[in-house]
Amino acid sequence: MSESEYRRPSWDEYFMEVCNAIAKRATCDRGRSGCVIARDNQILATGYVGAPAGLPHCDDAGHQMKKTVHEDGSVTQHCVRTVHAEQNAICQAAKRGVAIDGATLYCRMTPCRVCAMLIINCGIVRVVAERKYHVGGESEDMFAQAGVALEYVHEEVQPYENQ
Question: Which of 3, 8, 98, 105 is the most buried (most CB within 10 A)?
Fold first, then answer.
């Protein structure tokens, strides 16, 4: 590519690339996810999927799967051994005393219900997800009710093992 063809990435593209690089540190092979929290075009905190500090990781000990039965009768499977990337990024900000109120959160998939509640209560105002996590869901509804903007880079559902 010649210099004249170069296109500088947008801030959203840049932070999503960083998010995907961070995901490479994840220790659950079902969904190697990463997260970036940014405000004013500056990274405030990052996180990736992994077991709580000092506890065994999925990559070493295997998955700890739980099934969730939803109101419509559908069943989804989730690994509960890990702390989600979004949760770890929020914890990193708290541990370091970094305010994330008014920030944008970048992640690989739609945040789960618990992550959505934390994101809302932290004052994050915008979520940019690379893909959807399952089809539809409570997170989208909660974000809409709370006034948190949710945008997708790609509109398809992220495929992964034991979905």
Answer: 105
Strand segments, DSSP code E, in 70-137 are 75-79, 104-109, 126-131
Flag whether the pTM goes above 0.85: yes
Summarize pLDDT for 94-112 with one digit per residue, the tens: 999 999 999 999 999 999 9
Number of helices (H) and strands (E), helices first, in the chain? 5, 7
d(CA 82, CA 35): 14
- Does residue 86 carry a catalytic annotation? yes
